[in-house]
Design a protein that fits this description.
The chain has seven helices and 19 strands. With about 300 residues, it is α+β, with helices and mostly antiparallel strands. It has two domains: about 5-185, Nucleotide cyclase, GGDEF domain (Alpha-Beta Plaits, 2-Layer Sandwich); about 190-300, Tumour Suppressor Smad4 (Sandwich), CATH 2.60.200.20. The longest helix has 21 residues, at about 25-45.
């Protein structure tokens, strides 16, 4: 059967914090806890006239006939997670991305640019965030549209031009402020906060790069003998921050709760919170760490 074309809103919801839950509870109990969360997310989908396409581990993919349904389901999901009690002292959160557009339907599954863009939005979100595109925002009803703020124009794999990314606000204080003002929230800029021992550095529009290595002239001077004289560099590119490894022994990168990545002569986007270790794993005794946390702050007028 040939795939058919149609327009839908595609939503991805990914549970954040599940890795630490598996470590604390073990596979069987953690899986049961994650499954209960996935059931909750599915209920939110159906309640807003959507349908669950599939679940992949701790991720749910859903489809809706319009952008409003996907947006409302996203907000319902976040409120449901916020009300959920911590499990084994771990508070789970979800990262949500959604996009409306043309999809290819085949064997009860969906493919194409719309699906890829929605997945990319989920990848950009941090726990407790809902990310979408400006084109999707333009299709929302006024009250939902007024509960969004523009975040950045970012490059998305497979697209020749940058995509304008927006956040859908759901927390009560944020929503009330935006809706009462009757306008869009102010523009925000990306900020990366970096900590090395007692030293703290902020990268933003006024300071866009930071060199790291054993040479004393660098922004962060390392002591670890496994580190290179110029080990790596953090660069602000548009509204995101890239770490570029320039070393002989590589950099070990941890992003939020994801497994550690060994990076050598390559680069990676620093999202959420994480650590950098130089020349060897952060788990090894005596590893010298640089911690980072990305956030958005309101631009000064």
């Amino acid at each position: 059967m040939q795939p058919s074309d149609r327009q839908l809103a595609i939503l991805f919801a990914d549970v954040s914090g599940s890795t630490s839950l598996y470590e604390k509870l073990g596979d069987r109990e953690a899986l049961a806890a994650i499954d209960s969360v996935v059931v909750l997310l599915k209920f939110c989908v159906v309640a807003q006239a959507g349908h669950v396409v599939k679940t992949i581990g701790d991720e749910v993919m859903a489809a809706f006939p319009d952008a409003d349904g996907a947006a409302r389901a996203s907000i319902d999901m976040q409120f449901a997670m916020a009300a959920l009690a911590p499990i084994a002292d771990t508070r789970l959160a979800i990262r949500i991305g959604l996009h409306f557009g043309q999809v290819l339907e085949e064997n009860a599954d969906y493919f194409g640019d719309c699906v890829n863009t929605a997945a990319r939005m989920a990848g950009l979100a941090m726990g407790g965030q809902i990310m979408t595109t400006a084109t999707t925002v333009s299709l929302l009803s006024p009250i939902l549209r007024d509960s969004t703020r523009t975040v950045a124009a970012l490059a998305v794999k497979g697209k020749q031009t940058e995509v304008e990314v927006c956040e859908l606000l759901w927390r009560s204080a944020e929503n009330l402020t935006v809706i009462a003002a009757g306008r869009k929230a102010p523009r925000f800029e990306a900020v990366l906060r970096i900590a090395h021992g007692v030293e703290e550095i902020v990268l933003d529009a006024s300071r866009s790069s930071l060199e790291i290595g054993r040479d004393l002239g660098h922004g962060i001077a390392l002591q670890d003998p496994m580190a290179s004289r110029l080990h790596g560099r953090i660069e602000r590119r548009g509204d995101k921050f890239q770490y570029v490894d320039l070393s002989s022994n590589g950099t070990y990168v941890t992003l939020e709760t994801d497994p550690e990545i060994a990076l050598r002569r390559d680069q990676i986007t620093l999202r959420g919170r994480g650590t950098l270790s130089f020349g060897h794993s952060a788990t090894e005794p005596g590893a010298e760490l640089v911690c980072f946390a990305s956030e958005y702050r309101e631009k000064e007028s």
